[in-house]
User: What shape does this take?
Amino acid sequence: MPEWGVPAVYRWERVPTADGAMDLTLTYAAPDRWMLDPWPLTVDALRLVGEGRLLRNRYRGETVMREGLIRAPWVRWESIIVPAQYHASRGRAGAGMDSSHLALS
Assistant: This one.
């Protein structure tokens, strides 16, 4: 299960692609690993990198939230998204996952 209350599945309808609009599903596979189905990209995998302040709590007001933001640590995250077929050919989602051989962009 993803950390920090992130949903395990995201769905988008009618996403424009080179092959026309299609429904896409992004599913959690393992820590920092996600599967996209169908795969509309021309690369083998997609690496996403970001950074920001990690807020671990919910806040009841803007003032309290801003105070929490000042104290929150900076974090860097990285996730790799691969085609769902990549996982299906390797058994359960995330099993034997080694992204070192993927051509990442």
Summary: The mean pLDDT is 84. The longest strand covers residues 74-83.
